[in-house]
Specification:
Blueprint: H1 2-26, H2 31-44, H3 56-61, H4 65-79, H5 95-101, H6 108-138, H7 142-146, H8 149-154, E1 155-161, E2 164-169, H9 176-188, H10 194-206, H11 213-223, H12 239-244, H13 256-262, H14 272-295, E3 316-318, H15 324-333, H16 339-352, H17 356-365, H18 368-379, H19 382-385, H20 389-407, E4 413-415, E5 423-425, H21 429-453, H22 467-477, H23 479-491, H24 497-514, H25 521-535
Antiparallel strand pairs: 1-2, 2-3, 4-5
Length: about 550
């Protein structure tokens, strides 16, 4: 593999050498002078051998550290029209531009670098125009909106329908103007989070890696947090299971290889999610390619599609995986690190320590949704807590996640029609893939709608999505799975989404005003009645919109 990479890089440098040699000859240089200059230009394209005396060890310990630094250094010199032959760094940034502006004589090298710099600025501007065009074309497209922050920062996303996007990578350093343009347009459209996304994007594309991968993986393992995605390695709903049965701690994306390694009982690698995190961190895309192919030998795994296949997955993405709505939802809803849970925990600590006045002052400083969540979860029973949209959506995602997890296991999806004698819902690999996709889509819509109805930053004004259409599609693919979903939702006592979203502003206002004395029984009665009515409805027929869905 290293030889192949070296061969492709050498071909690029040979092309640069030939063009630079021909340009030097045209400028009147001798064969020797043109060869020396062309050799330098071909090497300086990005000189991976360039580093300071103190960087030798670090460039070996931290992958891509020197490549990132040299890329930034080269970008600054190119955009600034730097006298690259002298390697004098930032002292020469923009010097040639100012000399040209004031009509001063330019050296041959400065004239060449000005041309190169102007071309680089023109390329950056053209990249920004592409980003602006995509924004205006797809700004109202739900799949475009749902593309994760990482995908939007590092590439252009083109929605093609069915929850799929085509991903076109951006040039890392030169993408800063394109990303600025996108975030500026989003901010102008009323999205206050666009500024924060731009700042995070600059860090993602500009800042070099600073720690050896193995060291970072160990720290993440101890902290139970993936620093890249910001998510927990073992979700809070599986942490109790991790103590009793660590080999059962996996999700529907966990590879069969990780499960088998966890079954060996190796210390610190007893849970499949921890194994997956470690090996994917060390092996990156190669590990994903290997495990994707390895999974196909398991008869209980869903069928592979274009978003899983080793080559096509680099360009065709499923926006449900790490969607923007999921990332924002868990930023608020996580029971460990979520903003809502943080508000509740802070309020609870003050009450437990007897500092009632400080607790009241603490509530006053919270925003209305956080204040209502803290009071509701501290002073009211579970049946009242379900009146909160975030609490309700978290219930739904837990039910759906459990079903997807079971479906990818050897035992298959449980059929709880008879609670005391559970069976298994028989699904082919193709049906599993379709069912898994629809359950993932349902979870995404639940989270997105919660953010929209609560008017949380970045989602106010966006269009909510119909969940019944997705359930109707699920009914068409597997009626038994749709019935199982209804049974589990009913067992979890999840209230009707329309009722919870409609009455939450009233619930929030009562809790903000009357705190623990708030009267909520009337709204609770309505929520229970509408939920009982919806769960008692007969099985829906497949809606006509279902024909628009394209299965794998």
């Amino acid at each position: 593999m290293a030889r192949v990479v070296e061969l492709t890089e050498t071909g690029t440098r040979l092309g640069l050498f030939r063009k630079a040699y021909e340009r030097g000859k045209a400028d009147g240089l001798t064969d020797w002078e043109a060869s020396v200059e062309a050799s330098y230009i071909a090497t300086d394209y990005i000189d991976f051998g360039l580093n300071g005396a103190r960087m030798t060890v670090w460039r070996r310990l931290v992958p891509f550290l020197n490549a990132q630094l040299q890329g930034l250094y080269k970008m600054m010199r190119t955009l600034g029209g730097d006298e690259v032959r002298q390697r004098k760094g930032l002292r020469f940034v923009l010097r040639a531009y100012f000399k040209d502006l004031h009509g001063l004589d330019l050296s041959r090298r400065e004239r060449q670098q000005l041309q190169t710099g102007r071309r680089a600025w023109a390329k950056m501007a053209s990249l920004a125009l592409v980003s602006a065009a995509l924004h205006f074309l797809f700004r109202d497209d739900e799949d475009y909106q749902e593309a994760s922050e990482y995908l939007r920062t590092t590439g252009w996303v083109i929605p093609v329908g069915g929850g799929r996007i085509v991903y076109v990578p951006k040039p890392f350093e030169l993408a800063v103007l394109a990303n600025f343009t996108e975030r500026a347009l989003e901010y102008g459209s009323g999205d206050p989070e666009a500024v924060n996304r731009f700042v995070r994007g600059v860090g993602l594309t500009m800042l070099p890696p600073v720690s050896p991968p193995l060291v970072q993986l160990v720290i993440e393992r101890v902290a139970n947090k993936d620093f890249f995605t910001g998510r927990e390695i073992v979700p809070s709903n599986l942490q109790t299971l991790a103590v009793k049965s660590p080999e059962m701690v996996y999700d529907n994306y966990t590879s069969e290889l990780a499960k088998q390694i966890a079954g060996l009982g190796i210390p610190f690698l007893k849970t499949p999610l921890h194994v997956e995190h470690l090996l994917s961190g060390l092996g990156a895309s190669a590990y994903r390619d290997i495990t994707t192919l390895y999974n196909q030998f398991s008869e209980h795994r869903p069928a592979m599609d274009a978003t899983d296949a080793p080559i096509s997955r680099r360009f065709v993405r499923d926006i449900r995986r790490g969607s923007a709505s999921a990332q924002d939802f868990w930023r608020y809803a996580s029971t460990v690190t979520g903003q809502m849970e943080g508000a509740k925990a802070g309020y609870q600590r003050l009450l437990d320590s007897g500092r009632l006045d400080e607790a009241a002052e603490f509530l006053n400083d919270l925003d209305p949704d956080e204040r209502a969540y803290a009071v509701l979860n501290e002073h009211f029973a579970a049946e009242y807590k379900r009146l909160n949209p975030i609490y309700r959506a978290r219930q739904m995602t837990s039910v759906i996640s459990a079903m997807r997890r079971e479906m990818s296991s050897e035992l298959g999806l449980d059929d709880t029609t008879i609670a005391k004698v559970p069976g298994t819902i028989a699904l082919t690999a193709k049906e599993k893939a379709e069912v898994d996709e629809l359950l993932s889509e349902l979870a995404r819509r639940e989270m997105r709608n919660t953010l929209v109805y609560m008017r949380l930053p970045g989602w106010s004004g966006k269009k909510p999505l119909d969940t019944q259409t997705t359930i109707g599609m699920l009914e068409a693919v597997s009626p038994e799975t749709a019935d199982e979903l209804r049974r589990r939702v009913k067992k979890a006592k999840v209230y009707d989404a329309d009722t919870v979203n409609e009455y939450w502003p009233d619930v929030r206002d009562r809790l903000s005003t009357d705190r623990e004395q708030a009267f909520l029984k009337d709204i609770l009665a309505i929520a229970k009645a509408t939920s009982a009515a919806s769960s008692g409805r007969s099985r829906r027929t497949t809606p006509t919109m279902a024909v628009r869905w394209c299965p794998r």
